[in-house]
Write a structure and sequence with these properties.
It is built from five helices and no strands. With 168 residues, it is mainly α. Helix 4 packs antiparallel against helix 5. The longest helix has 34 residues.
């Protein structure tokens, strides 16, 4: 699946066609994650909860840890004064905080939230939705972001990506 990328994402909105502005507005990782979370909820409604309370509590803990990881990553991106939003060109290659362990801590946290909700609601089948969500995040966001990082930071990005895994 090839995703067309607009190199002019940072251009003033009024210069872009309405269809491009709408696509950019709705094509954000949190919306894809929300769709997966809705799927987990729907599966739980259809199939019922089957996990014991101890595992369900672990799901809520996993969600909390994932949200903390997101906040940790955003904090390091803001400190570096670089783009947090997808499709934007970063000014700095952030290699601190959670970026020392994974190149995509926020996307990884999105997947952990989906698994956590499946556990918390007691329906393990919902965790399967991390597979299509991970694929969508990788193709629509991660690969284009990595291409921009490679273009902007060349040798720095290649050295970092050789050392730090994309996911975990």
């Amino acid at each position: 699946m090839t995703v067309e990328q607009d190199d002019d994402f940072d251009a003033p909105r009024e210069r872009l066609p309405l269809s491009t502005r709408i696509r950019r507005l709705i094509d954000l990782p949190p919306l894809w994650t929300a769709a997966a979370l809705a799927g987990v909820w729907g599966m739980t409604e259809m199939l019922g909860a089957v996990l014991p309370a101890s595992i369900r509590l672990s799901g809520w803990i996993l969600i909390a840890l994932a949200v903390l990881m997101m906040l940790w990553a955003v904090r390091h991106m803001l400190r570096a004064d670089t783009a947090v939003m997808p499709h934007r060109s970063p000014r700095i290659l952030v290699r601190t905080g959670p970026f020392r362990y994974t190149r995509n801590p926020i996307y990884l946290a999105d997947l952990l939230v989906v698994v956590g909700l499946a556990m918390a609601l007691g329906q393990p089948a919902g965790a399967m939705l991390v597979l299509p969500l991970g694929y969508i995040l990788q193709k629509r966001f991660i690969e284009p972001e990595e291409a921009r990082l490679d273009k902007n930071f060349d040798h720095q990005f290649r050295a970092w990506s050789a050392e730090i895994p994309r996911w975990f």
